[in-house]
Structures are given as structure tokens and as C-alpha cells.
Design goal:
The chain has 10 helices and 13 strands. By secondary structure, it is of the alpha/beta class. It has a 7-stranded mixed sheet with strand order 6-7-8-3-9-10-11, sandwiched between helices. A 4-stranded antiparallel sheet has the order 2-1-4-5, with helices on one face. Strands 12-13 form a two-stranded antiparallel sheet. The two termini are 20 Å apart. The structure holds adenosine-5'-triphosphate (ATP). Keywords: ATP-binding, DNA-binding, Nucleotide-binding, Transport.
């Protein structure tokens, strides 16, 4: 039997609600019930259906999900290329729903960097690698950096990503993997708070894909850039500490990995654990594999235990 809360309990809860920090207050990226509806030929498609996502500063994380689940829609919104229909989205203190056209242009040039899947879309074909990297700095005025300083920074970035030898080559004189590493340098040129990459290894073989991933890791570790990578590539998803799955336009489950040292042998191993997202209304989406394995549908039985909640298949018909 549940006991009724007393007046004092209710007063305490109301005060706690008032002093509770706003959702995502300490996150670099915060999406709060994000909705994006596309209308095409009188048909509405809900690409994002109330998506919640928080990313902390300095994270390197992967977004995975089936085709059509809304990954690219989310990336385009975070990149400032598209606007949500409803909800809230903030990146590095920029409100993505309230930006003017001028703010948006500055946001795309200085706050976010972007790497696309198509290697040809990331670089200008008639410029060398070094010129491609210097271009975003020139376009933004690069906060007082002189021409020489820009060229030096371009070279530093190329060297950091192991493509210093490509500095004077045009894209068609480089391999796909080299082009993508140069593309990462271009995206980092203006020191963005966030680097977004949509299937950056999609056109590459697995060995080259690993090198691209190593380049993202270098950028994350050496420059502290927050990086979000959309990927189908299980190998890439398995390399990051945090993988968030998107399903039907919402974040559904999340896998966190951490290193653990075996007390007996001293060996380090990676331990992963799957989490489900609990929204503020208390809604929880269970992974389809779990519910299918136990034949759960429509209704499940619940029990509150001391330190967990137990979920069983509906047993009401048996009783
Ligand atoms: N401009 C658009 N007009 C109409 N519908 C769109 C538009 N862009 C995306 N959609 C629809 O929104 C849904 C989500 O698409 P989105 O491209 O975000 O998925 P995705 O997870 O990136 O898929 P993929 O892995 O295949 O790239 C899909 O049903 C798609 O058809």
C-alpha cells in the first residue's frame, strides 16, 4: 500500500524542483525533446520525435541507428544547417532555435566543424591540402591571425593528423583516407567547440577507417575538441567510451565503456554496460531484443525492489 505524502513532503518536493538545475545546464550539447517534422507532398514525416541528448565538453562519442532513424537530421540541426520544428537545442551556449541568419553563419564557421561522408564534399578540388585548411581561417577573419600564422597552423594540424606530407597536394593526388584526414584538419581550423562527423568512414575500407578514427582520437586528446560521430561501423562504435543508439527519432539505449584493472593480474580490460534512457515523464524504452526474448508486449508486470525495478512478462492472465 502506498502512503499519501504529507503536506510537508509536498512542500519539500516543490522546493527541490525549484532548486534543481535546468536540464543539461552543464552540457556542451543539449537537445531537449527535439522534434523535426518534414512535409513532402502533403505527407508528414516525423524524423525526430522528442529526442533528448546531452554531451559533455571533451567527449568523443558515437551515434548509431538504423537507416531512417534520424541521425542525419540531428547532425544537420547541430551543424546549424537545419532548424528543429519544436523542442530545444543548445550547443556551446548557442540557442539553435533562436539564431538569426548572421548568427547561424558565424556559428557554422566558428563554433562547429563538420566532416561529411563523401570525401569530395569536404575539400575544394582546386586548392592544396594546406590551402583547404587555411580557407576557413581566412573566411572567419581568424581572430587576428596573420597570413603566416594561418599557414603555420594549417601545417601543424596536417602534421598532427599525419598528413603533413600532403600539404602541397590537391585532393585528387591523395588517397580517400588522406583526404578525410585533411578534411578533419579543415574542420578543426577555427578551433571549433564541437566537431561533427556524419559517416566519415563510410566510403573507406576498414583499415583506412581505423586510421580516420585514430585521427579523431588525436584531435580529441590533443585539442580537447568534443566530437560526435555518426557511424554504421561497429568497429568505430566499439572504440569510443559512449555509444548512443537512436531509434525512431529518439535516443533509445546507450553503451558506456570503461577500463577496469583486474586486481589479481593487473591487466586492463574494457568493460561495457548497456543503459536505457529514462525521460522526465519516467518513460523507458526497453531494447527490442530484450522484450522479444521474453515475449513481452503491451503490458509488463513491475515490482519495486530495494535497489532495482523488476520487469516481468504480463502474468495477469495466469492468475
Ligand atoms: N528533407 C526531407 N524531406 C522529407 N523527409 C525527410 C527529409 N530528410 C529526412 N527525411 C526523412 O526523415 C527520416 C530520418 O532521416 P535521416 O536521414 O535523418 O535518417 P538517418 O538515420 O540519417 O538514415 P541513414 O542512415 O540512411 O542516413 C527518414 O524517414 C527520412 O526519409
Amino acid at each position: 500500500m502506498t502512503t499519501q505524502p504529507t503536506l510537508a513532503d509536498l512542500a519539500r518536493r516543490a522546493t527541490a524542483d525549484r532548486t534543481r538545475p535546468v536540464y543539461g545546464h552543464d552540457a556542451l550539447i543539449s537537445c531537449d525533446r527535439l522534434v523535426r517534422i518534414f512535409s513532402a507532398d502533403g505527407v508528414e514525416v516525423q524524423a525526430l520525435q522528442g529526442l533528448d541528448l546531452l554531451v559533455r565538453e571533451g567527449e568523443l562519442m558515437a551515434l548509431v541507428g538504423a537507416s531512417g532513424s534520424g541521425k542525419s537530421t540531428l547532425m544537420n540541426i547541430l551543424a546549424g544547417l537545419d532548424t528543429p520544428t519544436a523542442g530545444a537545442a543548445r550547443v556551446a551556449d548557442h540557442d539553435l532555435l533562436a539564431m538569426t541568419a548572421k548568427d547561424r553563419l558565424r556559428y557554422r564557421r566558428e563554433v562547429v566543424g563538420f566532416v561529411w561522408q563523401q570525401t569530395s564534399r569536404n575539400l575544394l578540388p582546386y586548392l592544396t591540402a594546406a590551402q583547404n585548411v587555411a580557407l576557413p581561417m581566412q573566411l572567419s577573419g581568424a581572430r587576428g591571425r596573420g597570413r603566416r600564422a594561418k599557414a603555420e597552423r594549417a601545417l601543424e594540424l596536417l602534421e598532427m593528423l599525419d598528413v603533413g606530407d600532403c600539404r602541397d597536394r590537391r585532393p585528387h593526388q591523395m588517397s580517400g583516407g588522406q583526404q578525410q584526414r585533411v578534411a578533419i584538419a579543415v574542420a578543426l581550423a577555427n578551433d571549433p567547440a564541437v566537431l561533427l562527423a556524419d559517416e566519415p568512414t563510410g566510403e573507406l575500407d576498414s583499415h583506412t577507417g581505423e586510421q580516420i578514427f585514430a585521427a579523431f582520437r588525436t584531435a580529441n586528446e590533443q585539442l580537447g575538441t568534443t566530437i560526435v560521430i555518426v557511424t554504421h561501423d561497429q568497429a568505430v562504435a566499439g572504440e569510443v567510451r559512449r555509444t548512443v543508439a537512436i531509434r525512431d527519432g529518439r535516443t533509445s539505449t546507450e553503451v558506456l565503456r570503461r577500463s577496469e584493472v583486474d586486481a589479481a593480474t593487473g591487466d586492463e580490460r574494457l568493460v561495457s554496460r548497456e543503459y536505457a534512457m529514462l525521460d522526465r515523464a519516467g518513460r523507458l524504452q526497453l531494447p527490442a531484443e530484450y522484450t522479444q526474448a521474453l515475449g513481452m508486449r503491451d503490458r509488463v508486470a513491475l515490482e519495486l525492489e530495494q535497489d532495482h525495478i523488476a520487469v516481468w512478462p504480463d502474468d495477469s492472465a495466469d492468475g
